[in-house]
Design brief:
By secondary structure, the chain is of the alpha+beta class. It has eight helices and 26 strands. The strands form four sheets. Strands 14, 15, 16, 17, 18, 19, 20 and 21 form an eight-stranded antiparallel β-sheet that branches. The protein has a six-stranded mixed β-sheet with strand order 1-6-2-3-10-11.
């Protein structure tokens, strides 16, 4: 397997994507890529980006998404850029598919996306979803079920932007959508390692969600959710709530939690709005950042990916980090990709290409061979190679 990353923040859209394509071509050295991931700011003309990639590689299988920031081993962290990652190799097969309008008929959209992959069992499936139109946990459960009980690792992220709006976009070939599920499936003898970590840990007593709708929580332990939330954090809860996630778990397995980012307090509606589903009956705990700081989760994510990587030589690391992490890190956001790059350089794996984006939710199994899970506030690292 061979992969190449192109990354440009040129203000001119045609120059930016041309630079990214040429950077990839220099690494490919004549090898024709079979698949691609494209992450780009909404500031660019996305149809032009997609058209230029298709013009250069007419048969390439491509999906992508708008972002709240892009990152790579070429440019590091950028907020308004285009990052193109391409994949090739004689024994590698790649197929792209999509399911449209999941907000209207989720079963039909997931069926169409899986059917579009054709026959055979993929070794890895990257999924890119909208953040605001669907319950992503339902998407992942249905996708896992359709791919079979022994489904391959399903990883990815939710499309983002700079405004937390419904203007996030998913790409498929030369198409642009705001309500679709895009899949890129890898086939053949490849190795995959998955790591996910945050830097936050649960503290204090366990509470129970007693009234919620989707990601809106109205009551915790029978009390107004806003009251419970503010009784712990007090006046610190204002503006961006990215540094105050909750650890959420199913009652049957309270030790296995995921993080849910608090997006806003809606005084008028009487709820706290979270970036992900918050089912009634689930358990929640407050959280704090580990003493080593938020970036310790970045290192832990990489360590977990390396531990689970069964191969010898990864070709690329795909990164899906939470936009809320970027908000909390502020001017230190560039340190996340820099941390990963230095850690790779020091590891036995050596220097490899890194590419990814800041998402409105991250998708990764919590355990080896486990089902895909929607995370918030995490850094997901996916190693792919031989």
């Amino acid at each position: 397997m061979i992969s190449a990353v192109g990354h440009s923040d040129d203000v001119d859209v045609e120059s930016a994507i041309q630079q990214a394509i040429e950077q990839c071509e220099r690494v490919l050295a004549g090898i024709e890529p079979k698949g691609a991931l494209l992450f780009a700011t909404n500031e660019y003309d996305a149809p032009k980006l997609l058209a230029m990639v298709r013009a250069r590689w007419p048969s390439i299988a491509l999906i992508g998404a708008s972002t709240d920031g892009e990152m790579s081993s070429r440019l590091g962290f950028r907020e308004d850029s285009v990052c193109l990652t391409v994949f090739g190799g004689d024994e590698l097969g790649i197929r792209a598919s999509q399911g449209l309008d999941p907000s209207k008929d989720l079963d039909a959209a997931v069926d169409a996306a899986v059917r579009g992959l054709g026959e055979g069992k993929p070794a890895l499936c990257v999924v890119l979803c909208p953040a605001t139109t669907v319950n992503v946990s339902d998407v992942l459960a249905k996708l896992h079920a359709r791919l079979g009980s022994s489904a391959c690792p399903i990883v990815g992220g939710l499309a983002g932007d700079h405004t937390i709006s419904e203007e996030t976009r998913q790409f498929f070939g030369v198409e642009l959508h705001r309500d679709s599920i895009a899949l890129l499936a890898f086939y053949g003898p490849i190795s995959v390692g998955c790591g996910v970590a945050s830097g936050w840990f649960p503290i204090g007593v366990t509470h129970r969600i007693t009234r919620s709708v989707g990601g809106a929580v109205y009551e915790i332990d029978g009390r107004p959710a806003i009251e419970v939330y503010q009784s712990f954090w007090g006046d610190r809860v204002s503006g961006s709530l990215g540094e105050f996630p909750l650890a959420v778990s199913e009652p049957s397995s309270p030790e296995q939690h995921v993080l849910r980012a608090a997006m806003s307090i809606d005084e008028a509606a009487g709820c706290v709005q979270f970036a992900g589903d918050m089912p009634e009956g689930w358990l929640v705990r407050m959280t704090e950042v580990v003493p080593e700081g938020l970036l310790s989760g970045t290192r832990e994510s990489l360590d977990n990916a390396i531990k689970t990587y069964p191969g010898r030589s990864p070709s690329v690391a795909l990164l899906f980090s939470c936009a809320a992490r970027k908000w909390v890190l502020g001017t230190r956001a560039a340190e996340e990709i820099a941390h990963l790059k230095r850690a790779f350089d020091r590891s036995e794996l050596g220097a490899i290409s890194l590419a990814g984006f800041y998402a409105f939710g991250e998708i990764c199994p919590q355990a080896r061979n486990g089902p895909p899970v929607l995370h918030n506030e995490t850094c997901v690292t996916i190693l792919v190679g031989n």
